[in-house]
Every structure is written in structure tokens, then in C-alpha cells.
Amino acid sequence: MSDQKVTKVVIAGGGTAGWITAAALSKQLGPLLSITLVESDQIGTVGVGEATIPTHRTFHRLIGVDEQEFMKATQATFKLGIAFENWARIGDRYIHSFGQIGRSTWMADFHHVWRRAQAEDLATDLGDYCFELQAAEAGKFATSEKSPINYAYHLDATLYAQFLRKKSEEAGVRRVEGRIDRVEQRSTDGHVEALVLQSGERIEGDLFIDCTGFRALLIEGTLQTGFEDWSEWLPTNSAFAVQTEAVEPARPYTRAMAHDAGWQWRIPLQHRVGNGLVYCSEYLSDDEAQTRLLGNVEGRTLTDPRLIRYQTGRRKKIWNKNVVSMGLSSGFLEPLESTSIHLIQIAATRLIQLFPFSGITPAIAARYNDQSANDLRQIRDFLILHYKLTERDDSPFWRRCRDMSIPDTLQERIDLFREHGHAYQAPDDLFRVDSWVQVMLGQRARVEGYHRMGHMMSTAQAKSALETMRSNIASTVAKLPTHAEFIARYCAAGKPG
Ligand code: FAD
Questions:
Q1: Cα-flanking dihedrals φ and ψ of residue 84, to 5°?
Q2: Nearest CA-CA partner of 193 in 444, 81, 157, 202
Q3: Is the CB–ligand 1 distance for residue 268 below 6 Å?
């Protein structure tokens, strides 16, 4: 007989976080658990969150999602990176691509060789040595079983939640429609015992997953876990989002266009474009933000602009008692590098790995919390980098960012890069060496030192190696279909019904 102590899982909330968690748990542990998800159509979801990173593909493989089926169902397009406009200086532009740049060796990464060649005028832009970046610039795309191209997706958040809901219900998840009115706690230890809905229905569970978005109904509303505020380093706190008609073929990358108090995103889907203006309300009023957004979109607006307020930081304990928070209830880092959906996916994967079959104890929660804190911390540092390394002094917002003190963990990385040209990816880090390098250089970090590996080659050898690499990439990109052509034959979604 099984002595499994946790069998009844209750997921509160059915946005992207709720349905990702439901889909992952039901796919991997379904036969061992009874899973109920409660959501309220009346409250709705945050409705944004439409750009992802390449780990999305890994997650889909893990839960058995077919790429073409998913892309058709969510009007998805391919994403090869993010173009940052006006970040270091007005007029600047660089792409943080998902690709590998050049060829690195165990001794040193490619950008050291490039740096040496650049000093002798032998090298062109670093991006010329990255296949994904060149494909993005050319608006080209193709993928196949054997293709090494690294990519992510742009997707419709509402359609994605519906897609995952269908998968989850097929795998046995019970969905309950209704508004949670009350959360009941056990008198002995304060663990959550049941959710009571407005209808009076009572839903009991052993483990509760709080996916109620910024409301954080269980983790904060009930357990008052506390919040660690990171807004001193990431000062934006508001966003207006609006959807528009597509007026050009979808580019295979996200645009992040800085303005004087934040930045604006543009995310191309098959059937429309997602836009949003992210800003700090200390430096820009809501009215100005809305006007600015509407003045800088292309195509007819399809929705009214919607204001979203947020606080940057994290819940002090992501897992507290028998409540695990996921998604916006666990904390929020602004969407500059599209990391929130990734954080939900990694959290769901971690919950599967650390599932408390033998009962909920402080040790299991502590392990989960340590790992989650590390994920958030390193993404936080990478985001701060974009703001800190700016030369903009055209507004109080950018002066504040440029002059702010930053976490030691990030300062050490910047110093190491400036002094020696080294970037690194520690074992549990999300961002690759090439990500750090592209953003540091894109933000105009002044690099003094570099590894001398490149000096082992003669000038002629270095020149020829770089030219060969560049022309191979250019000729491969030239043979690719356009992004639009590839979507049309691989995953066309058709007009929304
Ligand atoms: P929500 O979508 O808010 O869902 C909450 C759920 O809880 C809903 O189903 C609601 O009905 C339910 N609920 C709440 N209270 C109750 C109640 N009392 N009773 C019953 N049900 C209840 N992420 C990315 O990865 N890429 C991006 O490009 C990106 N852009 C973003 C831009 C902005 C401006 C913001 C704010 C976020 C962005 N994100 C992005 C984050 C992403 O939107 C979220 O991580 C994701 O949508 C998960 O949200 P959620 O499910 O936690 O919350």
C-alpha cells in the first residue's frame, strides 16, 4: 500500500502559470495525483507575456507538446533574439541573439579572437559571426530535425492558456470555474486546508499552488510571506499594453525600444502585433505613457490600451508551508528579456523533481526556495546590466540608472569583462557567455583586456578564418526561406475564429 502523503494538488488560478503547472504535473505525475484547478472568468488573466526564450522548446519536449500543433493553436511566430534600440545611446541598435557567436575553444571564447582582429581592423561586427543574428536581420528562418538553429517563440498568451488547458483536461485535470472567496487554514500549523468559492463549494487539498497572479491570494493574502523589493535596481513599475494589426511580415525577433523613462516592446504574431510601453511612474505620467504608446505603434489598434502596475522583486519564500507560488504571485522581473514564462516552466519542472510525496517538510521547501532564489537573482542581474551600462544622460530616468549602485554579483561581472574580456555562465545560470558578451558590448562596455589566444595566429590566418566564417554564414542565410514563407508552410494558423 502506498504511504504517499501528498496526493491532492489544488492550483489556484488559470493564467499562463496555472495552466503550465497543470499541464506539467498532469503529464508527468498524473496517475499519482488528483489535480484541481480553480479559475475565475470574471477576474480574467493579465493577458500579456507573449515573448519567450529557447528553454520553452525544452519544456515542450518534456511535456510532449508538438511544435506545429502548438504554433497553429497560438498564432505563434519564431523568435531569434531581441533588438535593443536606443539603450546605450540614442540611435544605437544591437541584437541579443540566441545564437552562438563564432567558434569558441576550451581556452577562450571567440570574442577574444575577434577583439584582437578588431584591433587590427581585420574583423567586422561581432554579429557577422552569428548565424541566428544574421538570419534575424534578414527576416529569414528555417528549422528541421538536424538544424542547429537556436530559437524561441512569440505567442498569443490567451490562446496559449487555452491550448494548455485542453492538454491538461485531457490528462485528467479537473477545472472548477468560480471566484475564491476565502482560504481556510489548519489551526495547528497554519497550512492551507481548503479554498472556499463564492458559490460555497469547498476545495480541499494537501498542496496548493498559488497562480493567482499579482493578487497572490494564498502566498501573501493568507500566509503573509513578505516581499523583497528590487525596484531600486529595476525602477520601472507600470506598463500599458495594446494590440495592433500587423502591417508588415512578422520579424523573427522582439523589439525593445528605449524611451526617456523606460522602453517599448513590439512582438509580432501571425494574426496581430503585441505592443507595450514599460515605464517608471516617477518619471512619466500614465496619460503621457498612453499617448506615447499610441503614437508609436504601427497599424490600427485592436484593443484599448490596458494599464498594468507591478512591483519588481520576489516573495521572501516562494514555497511557504504547503503553498508554492508560481508566476506573478511568486514575484516579478520586468519583461525586458522575456524570462517570466521560463521561470514558470523551470518552477514547474522543479516541483516535479522535488515533489513532496513523503510529506511537506522544511528541508524540501528550503531546497526549492534556494534554487528559485538563485534563478531570480541571476536574471535580475542580467536585466540590471541593460540599465546600468547606459551612456544616456538625456533624462532623469537614465541618469538615475547610470549612477545607481548595483549588486556586487553584477559589479564583479562587469569588472571582469572590462578588465579581461571574460564573461561566464556558472552551472545554474540561464544566460550564456554569448548573451553577456552581446549585451555588454551592445551597451558599450569599454573592454581593456582580452585573452591573447588570437595572437597565436598570423594576421593572414586570422583574416582568412574570419572571412570564411562570415561568408559561410552569409551564404547559408541567403538560402533560407523568409520567416513568413516558412510559417506559411510549417504552421500557418489561419484567421482567428
Ligand atoms: P495571471 O495571468 O494574472 O492569472 C491569474 C489567474 O488567477 C487568473 O486565471 C485569475 O482568474 C485567477 N484568480 C485570481 N484571483 C482569483 C480568485 N479570487 N478566484 C479565482 N481565480 C482567481 N512573460 C514572458 O515570459 N514574456 C513576456 O514577454 C512577458 N511580458 C510581460 C509584460 C508585462 C507588462 C507583464 C506584467 C508581464 C509580462 N510577462 C511576460 C509575464 C507573464 O505575463 C506572466 O508571467 C504570465 O502571464 C503568468 O501570469 P500568471 O498566470 O501568474 O497570472
A1: -100, 120
A2: 202
A3: no
Spatial distance between the Cα atoms of 120 and 189, rounded to a whole number of angstroms: 68
Q: What are the angstrom distances between the C-alpha of 42 and each of 165, 177, 442?
A: 17, 9, 44
Question: Nearest C-alpha to atom 40 of ligand 1 is from which residue?
Answer: 49
Q: How far is the CA of 434 from the centre of ligand 1 (A)?
A: 30
- Name which of 67, 23, 47 is nearest 351 in CA terms: 23
CA angle 157, 161, 162 (to 5 degrees): 115
Handedness of CA 380, 381, 383, 389 (dihedral sign): positive
What's the gap in Å between 396 CA and the centre of ligand 1? 31
Ligand 1 atom 15, closest CA: 212
- Cα of 251 vs centre of ligand 1, distance in Å, is 25
Q: Please, are residues 264 and 298 in contact by the beta-carbon 8 Å criterion?
A: no
- 216-266 tens-digit pLDDT: 999 999 999 999 999 999 999 999 999 999 999 999 999 999 999 999 999
79 included as an active-site residue: yes
Pick the catalytic residue: 27, 72, 79, 317?
79
C-alpha span between 94 and 439 (Å, rounded): 8
Q: How far apart are CA 129 and CA 346, in angstroms?
A: 31
Q: The pTM is what?
A: 0.96
pLDDT digits (tens, 9 = 90+) for 43-89: 999 989 899 999 999 999 999 999 999 999 999 999 999 999 999 99
